[in-house]
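Sequence in, structure out. Go.
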Amino acid sequence: MLALSHPRPPTDLRRWREATSRRLFVWVLSLLVGLGSALIALVYGWEAGALGLMCLVIGAGVLVMLWVIFTLLGRWAGAE
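Output:
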């Protein structure tokens, strides 16, 4: 077995997991709102697309509020 002269620095998997979950959450919300309203507009017209955009933004806001609440509860419970 070869000995490494310079060992790797420790990996912070918790920070990597948090960053990855945050990026994934942002992608899901942007696809939900952007692609969802675009598809509604293509199928039903631009007026329905604008209404769909407003409804999807409100729904995304509810999801963001839930994510913030669960994040704060996790930090409060010590899960960090």
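Check: Helices lie at 13-44, 46-77. Residues 18 and 36 are 26 Å apart (CA to CA).
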